[in-house]
Amino acid sequence: MFLYTLISMINYLVNIIVIVVIVQVVLGLLISFNVVNMHN
Fold first, then answer.
1. Exposure winner among 1, 19, 26, 29, fewest CB in 10 A?
2. Distance CA 27, CA 8 (A)
3. How far apart are CA 1 and CA 20, in angstroms?
4. Could you give the CA distance from residue 16 to residue 2 in angstroms, rounded to a whole number?
5. Residue 22 · residue 28 · CB < 8 Å
6. In angstroms, rounded to a whole number, what is the distance separating the alpha carbons of residues 38 and 2?
7. DSSP character at residue 34
8. Which residues contact 36 (CB under 8 A, 6 or more apart)?
9. 18: which residues sit within 8 A by CB, 6+ positions away?
């Protein structure tokens, strides 16, 4: 049961990391194409 809990926690953390990376890539693309203006 402990191993199952550990795997669940790792899976949860991996999902969060993947979401954060995707958001950073999308924001990076928007900034590089000047869609989002950082000097407002």
1. 1
2. 29
3. 29
4. 21
5. no
6. 46
7. T
8. 27, 30
9. none
